[in-house]
Amino acid sequence: MSIDLTARDVQDEAKKKGLPWTIAKGFDTFxxxxxxxxxxxxxxxxxxxxxxxxxxxxxxxxxxxxMLFRIPRxxxxxxxxxxxxxGDVILTGTPKGVGNVNVGDTMRVGVRVGGIExxxxxxxxxxxxxxGLYSYNET
Length: 139
Known about the structure:
Layout: H1 8-16, E1 49-54, E2 57-63, H2 71-79, E3 106-113, E4 116-117, E5 123-126
């Protein structure tokens, strides 16, 4: 499980300039990842509930059964382009409900199987001001 964050202001500015907007996803702390979930804990990976809350308010709560493509298809398609190795992480998208977060917000995500939350899939993080040398400037 992960939280895939995007700096929308940076993304929008890059798009306006016709530049790649991958920088908007590359800041430190923009991809917290949960502990590894053993395969045996997911009897049917195509029937798992994923949820996200911000400050205790549910923003996303849906099932992997809504995915457009099943995991074997995804792995097959990806491996035709690049070599997949043990430990690689593949992000497949997000349930409906993408939205903004602000400094000081607390984000919590998790995984439920049969209505039971898996401790391995839990992430809780506080949104902090980004550090580093990058300075966002509008044109």
